[in-house]
Structure formats: structure tokens, C-alpha cells
Amino acid sequence: MQGIIEVVTRSPEKLISFINDTIATLSKASPNPAHFAIAEMERLGLLDAVITQNVDNLHQLAGSESVIELHGNVYRFKCTQCGERMKFSRHDFLEFLGRAVTGLTSHSFENLIEAMPSCKCGGKARLDIVMFGEQVQMIPESYRRIEGAKVVLIVGTSGTVYPASEIPRYGKKSGALVIDVNPRETFYADIDDYFLKGPAGAVIPQLMEEVRALL
Length: 215
What we know:
Elements: H1 2-10, H2 12-28, H3 33-43, E1 50-52, H4 58-62, E2 67-69, E3 72-79, E4 85-87, H5 90-104, H6 109-115, E5 125-129, H7 139-146, E6 151-155, H8 166-173, E7 177-182, E8 194-197, H9 200-214
Parallel strand pairs: 1-2, 6-7, 7-8
Antiparallel strand pairs: 3-4, 3-5
Helix pairs in contact: 1-2, 2-5, 3-9, 5-6, 7-8
């Protein structure tokens, strides 16, 4: 929090620029073919859960329902007083970011706090995403869901960020077949049963069609 205060009081233009870039990025963000193929796997009963480090909500937008978000969700806020979580639509969240930019133009940290959503308990809410040094969310649930899995599909991660990097290894120890999809070799080479080289947006839909042909 101290770092944010310093940015607001000394260089608010940097935070304003960051928020404006975020607004532009989120406004254009949409699921790719891999997101839709993964959601289709869930609808067909082939996928039990998606465990993701992403905070962009794109899996849900593609239709996935069982999503475990290790680093939180950019469209969700958490009350700093009671811990209550509040989910926002993209439209409402972008409106909030616009209000935050307006508050920052006054070079006031108090105005930025005032722009944050209020909880029904009266407390102010912060983004429910994991910052550096904070504890990753839903790790026990991730291990519970992957234990006993027949197949673990690793998509687009290098396997270098702990503790998320250990989840597929736990699945392997539990007897799962490991399929790794990535444009380049990852740190899971020692546990991969199959390595499918290529971008997820191209490989996952093709894999989905091949699986569909076997049903």
C-alpha cells in the first residue's frame, strides 16, 4: 500500500497512464479458440475444472463454469474490512477505472480510495487479485480437484511460477497422464507424456476435434 501512496503523491501520471492502458486492453480482450475449446470439453463432461493463473475472466466469458483462479479475478473486488467478495461486469469495472482516473487527477490518495467500491458493511473494497508477496488463492482446492485426475492438460505455461507450478506435478504423482501444450519446451519436460508444440489457440481446438471424433 505504501508503494501505491508514493506513486499517487509523487507520480500520479504514471498510475493514470497504467489505468488508461488497462482500460484499453480490457475493452478489447476476448476469448480465443483455446478458451472456447476448453469450455466445450467441460460441456461434454471431459473436463472437471480449469485451474488458471490468469485474472482476465476469459475462461468464464468463453463458457467455462468450474474455474479455479489462483491469482484472483480482475473483475472481482474484496472488502478490506469484512472480506466479502463482489463481482463486477466488464462495463461496471471499466466505469470504476474511469472514476479512479478522475480521482487521481487531483493528486489525492483520499480521492482514489473514495472511488473504490463500498461494501454493504461500510468498508472499502480492493481488487481481488494476488499482488506480489500475497498468498495465492485456492491452492488446497486445486490439489483436491487434480488428485485422481486421469489426464492433466497443461496449456501455455512455462511451469516456473511457484506454487502453481507444482500442481501438475501433483497430478502426475497421483497417476495422471500429462499433456503439455506450448510453443516452446517447458519445465514440465520431465513429467510430460505428450508435448504438443504450438500456440494454444491452434492446438487445443484441434485436440478437441480429435477427441470429439472418438466420442
